[in-house]
């Protein structure tokens, strides 16, 4: 049978199993195109103008505009579709104005590999714990559910959140600020599981893998933590998110929670825990998600070579959520400003507001404290000095005294933006 | 062999299309008991993603080599990138992500990416 679009090239050096999987996925794709070519697409005026979910094709230089908002993803409400397959779904900013916790059906989604889990049989699922341990384990979900539980609120933020705001721009998923969310997680402390397995005294790191798989014979997505971190009693194997089981796209049935650290470590659909006796040379720890070791992971734009380290702790951030950047509002002498702040791996000491470009700051009132790793609301009322344009900034300082810098950072990966963000409104 | 696979895949896609975006979760009968006495087996179907870069020789390398692993949007939403940046991305796809692209076909992909962006930048 002739293929409508280029046949997959022969790759004799690849394992047969992998080639089969790649072939099957490619065949799926080609079959879909063939169906379209055979008539269905003719309805769309000849061009393949529309896929499910109203996905539309924007210009590649569309910047922050032009991303379709779709409610067509399973277990998800309206989300900004950065990529259909594998899904990259961003939370619209207005969601963060509604509640300090992000609803599961609005929580951002990010997958690396094409082969993501779409089905999990709860009875058949096993979490394996192996490597440098005395007693390798294969735990059932019902066994995990009977273990002692821990629970806390924690922000899950993509390493590349706000990447689209980098100047000069950098390649990668072009997230605005919505590659983040805050949830109350419930599960079993990782330290409890590692104690059950009995880790080797010489163990160095603990590595985590999930059900998502590459289609080709390359390193699967795995991340690791130092043993001391893994044993801190806070890192969690979570089975619940905001009081419900996790949506499939957020990592059902189990997700690693690494509070205070960027999301790249929060392995989704976690099914393997491996205790290592040496360094982790997997691509995803050794090569990917590396940031400059300079303050704020900042280097001169265009720099390619610099001392690097795997990304880790989140720095403080804050966002005004009740006013939309660029909005025009009727004039009033005073205006309420509120939003959400994140301390990183610390609680929040203060969030201050500036209306003079950062020369002076006004303290805001902090909302209820849901824990050091949670979003926390801030609010204040500020004077409006005159009709016209007004730029409002928020600056979070965390409990260790680390404050958001005024200057944006730059690095080629588009990681760790945490500068003070400006919200400009017109009051007429 | 491949023909049979494609036919099967077409059937599977047809079935998926009927319930695209649907979630099937068996009803839980222990809702009154303690939370998370059990987790419910779950399966999902993702929305269709049948978009290509269109027809013609200019985009054929992209249709052939990029879309098995990700949708067009991954490329279309990138900011304006230099040829060297596109080259680095194609190298990464081949080396780190194992894209089965022979070395002699990589330059055509890079050229197609640069041309695609130039075309969009021209507003055509």
From TrEMBL, chain B:
* Residues of the signal peptide: 1-17
A Gene Ontology MF term for this entry?
A: electron transfer activity
| Stored Gene3D superfamilies | Cytochrome c-like domain
- Print the keywords alphabetically: Signal
Q: Which InterPro entries match?
A: Cyt_c-like_dom_sf
Q: What is this protein called?
A: Cytochrome c
Q: Which organism is it from?
A: Sphingomonas lycopersici
Q: What is the lineage of its organism?
A: Bacteria, Pseudomonadati, Pseudomonadota, Alphaproteobacteria, Sphingomonadales
């Amino acid at each position: 049978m002739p293929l409508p679009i280029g046949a997959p090239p022969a790759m004799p050096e690849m394992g047969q199993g992998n080639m089969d999987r790649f072939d099957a996925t490619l065949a799926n794709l080609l079959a879909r195109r063939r169906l379209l070519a055979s008539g269905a697409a003719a309805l769309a005026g000849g061009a393949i103008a529309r896929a499910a979910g109203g996905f539309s094709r924007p210009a590649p230089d569309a910047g922050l505009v032009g991303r379709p908002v779709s409610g067509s993803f399973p277990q998800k409400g309206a989300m900004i579709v950065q990529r259909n397959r594998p899904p990259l779904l961003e939370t619209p900013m207005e969601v963060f104005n509604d509640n300090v916790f992000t609803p599961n059906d609005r929580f951002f989604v990010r997958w690396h590999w094409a082969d993501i889990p779409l089905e999990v049989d709860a009875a058949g699922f096993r979490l394996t714990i192996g490597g440098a341990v005395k007693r390798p384990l294969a735990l059932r979900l019902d066994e995990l559910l009977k273990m002692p539980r821990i629970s806390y609120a924690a922000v899950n933020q993509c390493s590349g959140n706000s990447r689209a705001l980098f100047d000069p721009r950098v390649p990668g998923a072009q997230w605005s600020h919505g590659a983040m969310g805050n949830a109350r997680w419930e599960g079993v402390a990782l330290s409890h599981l590692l104690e059950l397995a009995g880790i080797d005294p010489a163990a160095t790191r603990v590595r985590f893998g999930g059900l998502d798989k590459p289609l080709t014979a390359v390193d699967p997505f795995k991340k690791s933590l130092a043993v001391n971190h893994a044993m801190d009693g806070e890192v969690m194997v979570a089975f619940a998110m905001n009081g419900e089981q996790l949506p499939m796209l957020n990592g059902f049935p189990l997700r690693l929670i690494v509070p205070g650290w960027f999301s790249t470590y929060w392995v989704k659909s976690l099914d393997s825990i491996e205790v290592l006796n040496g360094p982790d040379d997997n691509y995803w720890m050794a090569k990917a998600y590396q940031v400059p070791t300079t303050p704020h992971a900042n280097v001169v734009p265009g720099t390619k070579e610099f001392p690097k380290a795997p990304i880790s702790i989140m720095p403080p951030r804050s966002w005004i959520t009740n006013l939309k950047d660029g909005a025009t509002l009727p004039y009033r002498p005073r205006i309420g400003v509120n939003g959400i702040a994140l301390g990183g791996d610390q609680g929040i000491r203060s969030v201050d507001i500036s209306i003079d470009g950062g020369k002076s700051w006004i303290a805001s009132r902090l909302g209820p404290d849901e824990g050091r790793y949670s979003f926390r609301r801030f609010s204040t009322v500020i004077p409006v000095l005159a009709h016209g344009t007004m730029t409002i900034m928020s600056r979070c300082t965390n409990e260790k005294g680390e404050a958001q810098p005024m200057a944006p950072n730059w690095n080629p990966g588009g990681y760790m933006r945490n500068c003070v963000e400006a919200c400009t409104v017109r009051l007429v | 062999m491949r023909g049979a696979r494609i036919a099967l895949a077409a059937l599977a896609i047809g079935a998926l299309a009927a319930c695209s975006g649907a979630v099937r979760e068996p009803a839980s009968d222990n809702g009154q008991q303690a939370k998370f006495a059990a987790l419910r087996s779950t399966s999902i179907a993702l929305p269709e993603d049948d978009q290509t870069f269109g027809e013609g020789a200019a985009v054929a390398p992209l249709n052939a080599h990029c879309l098995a692993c990700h949708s067009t949007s991954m490329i279309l939403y990138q900011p304006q990138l230099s040829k060297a940046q596109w080259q680095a991305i194609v190298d990464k796809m081949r080396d780190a992500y194992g894209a089965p692209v022979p070395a002699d076909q990589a330059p055509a992909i890079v050229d197609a990416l640069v041309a695609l962006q130039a075309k969009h930048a021209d507003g055509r």
